[in-house]
Write a structure and sequence with these properties.
With 482 residues, this protein is of the alpha+beta class. The chain has 6 helices and 31 strands. The strands form 7 sheets. Strands 4, 6, 21, 22, 23, 24 and 25 form a 7-stranded antiparallel sheet that branches. A 6-stranded antiparallel β-barrel has the order 7-16-19-18-17-20. It has a 5-stranded mixed barrel with strand order 27-28-29-31-30.
């Protein structure tokens, strides 16, 4: 035997041995599930901490220090959910609730604080340069009535002007008197002061500065002995007849608040009382720290009981809206999505994704993902969700809406009516380029018998038709000019 023949024989022996070994291994190694346990066929073994990894034989998990568990044929698959023994459901504290339709208050609850009405501010200024001769013991924060005196000002420049005016009056020249009086007004004297000078015939160079309106003194700059200039601000008075309630509305609910909307407020200082007002402004800037928008509510304050700085609870009005509702405690909020545990027949539970809407009175609106009458877990759902996660169970996704049916194309043309009945019309029509039809005479179905009303043979009409499976059908037909 040559060396080449010897080498080929050796290679052939090795291949034959490999094939024999493969055959033996193939027929002696049991397939997964071929060795039943307790009479039940095993599909695969798995580690409950890593349920996505399957093994074809029992043993110790390569991931954890624990034995692999068998997955039997006929057990609940991912689409069937987690199965819990009905006897254990009560022990786990599982409580069910029914998805039902109801009404959800559309109002928004918020908190706020009373503030001054910044539109009702009066500024007290000196009308001329002078000196503060006397003050009346006022201080910032004092609540004063309209006309309350603040300070007496000595105005030297007014003394000479008033003396000239009295001298002119003694001349009896009406034109000169009018001119002299106008000069006093231009110097800043009030008409009441000029009248007092006329009546008394004496110079009045000391004037009392008083508040034009009632309210709280916000600033006071008049001090005894100080000099003032013309136009210098001596005080600011903020009215209290109306106040602002600045409510912090969560950004997520800002869309439910609008201008002119009614609102009610309750304060701890007056338990049992409700104060009503309306939203007069929604400030344009959000608070970055609290993610809230400020809604300004104007409240009447006839007796001055609402004081700036008071804390209030606010409820914005709104009509209740119908909605599909579940208990808020049934919703599992993961941050990425919202889930509920859906109860199924036979003690099975499946996580289902939902689109949540508004929330009020312990109930949450479901915009998509559930139907009326579904049963969800309201208590104990976190235990079931953990079991579903360990079993590798995927949540049921939100059903996608079906695409709307396309509107049939309507072809427009003109023609002459040859024959008409309540259900059909025969027309000699012009060409229809959209579908390549030439001018011809043909019979169309009428979609509605009322289309034939007032139209007779020989009339020219403009009409629109489509082509359903039943044949060309006129959908619109009106008389046309000849």
């Amino acid at each position: 035997m040559t060396r080449r023949q010897t080498r080929l024989a050796a290679i052939g022996g090795i291949v034959a041995a490999a094939l024999v070994g493969f055959g033996v291994g193939r027929f002696t190694t049991p397939k997964p599930g071929a060795a039943p346990i307790n009479g039940r066929a095993v599909l695969y073994w798995y580690d409950p901490m890593v349920p996505g990894q399957h093994f074809d034989k029992p043993g110790k998990s390569p991931f954890m220090d624990m034995q692999l568990l068998p997955k039997y044929a006929g057990e609940a698959g991912p689409a069937s959910g987690v199965q819990i023994d009905p006897a254990k459901v009560q022990n786990l504290g599982v409580r069910l609730a029914t998805v039902e339709r109801g009404t959800l208050p559309s109002g928004v609850a918020a908190t706020g604080a009373i503030d001054f009405d910044e539109r009702d501010v009066a500024v007290v200024q000196a009308k001329a340069a002078g000196f503060v001769q006397r003050v009346y013991g006022r201080a910032p924060g004092d609540v004063v009535a309209a006309g309350a005196p603040l300070a007496d000002l000595l105005v030297p420049d007014w003394a000479g002007a008033q003396g000239e005016y009295l001298a002119v009056r003694r001349t009896g020249d009406a034109a000169l008197i009018r001119a002299a009086r106008q000069r006093l007004q231009l110097l800043g004297m009030a008409p009441a002061l000029i009248d007092a000078v006329e009546r008394s015939g004496r110079v009045r160079d000391v004037v009392t500065v008083a508040t034009p309106t009632g309210g709280a003194i916000k600033t006071l700059g008049a001090r005894a002995g100080m000099s003032v200039t013309a136009g210098q601000t001596l005080a600011e008075v903020n009215g209290l007849a109306r106040v602002w309630l600045n409510a912090a509305v969560p950004e997520a609910m800002a869309g439910q608040v609008r201008l002119g909307q009614g609102a009610t407020a309750t304060l701890a200082a007056y338990p049992g009382e409700v104060f009503s007002g309306r939203v007069t402004a929604i400030l344009p800037q959000a608070q970055a720290e609290s993610r809230t928008l400020t809604a300004r509510i104007e409240l009447p304050n006839p007796r001055g009981r609402l004081r700036p700085g008071m804390f209030a609870s606010v409820q914005f009005g709104g009509q209740p809206q119908p909605a599909l509702l579940v208990p808020s405690e049934a919703v599992i909020r993961t941050g990425r999505r919202n889930l509920v545990m859906l109860a199924q027949a036979g003690g099975r539970f499946q996580p289902a994704e939902i689109q949540a809407g508004r929330e009020a009175d312990g109930r949450t609106e479901v915009l998509a993902g559930l139907s009326e009458g579904d049963r969800v877990v309201a208590s104990g759902q976190f235990l079931l969700d953990s079991e579903a996660s360990l079993s590798g169970l995927q949540a049921r996704p939100i059903a996608q809406p079906k695409p709307a049916a396309a509107t049939p194309a309507l072809y427009e043309t003109r023609g002459r009516v040859e024959q008409i009945t309540p259900t059909s019309v025969t027309l000699s029509h012009e060409p229809v380029p959209a579908i390549g039809w030439p001018a011809m005479t043909m019979t169309f179905r009428l979609a509605d018998p009322t289309l034939a009303k007032g139209i007779k043979a020989g009339d020219r009409v403009a009409f629109g038709f489509d082509q359903p499976p039943a044949g060309p059908t006129v959908r619109r037909m009106t008389p046309a000019a000849r």
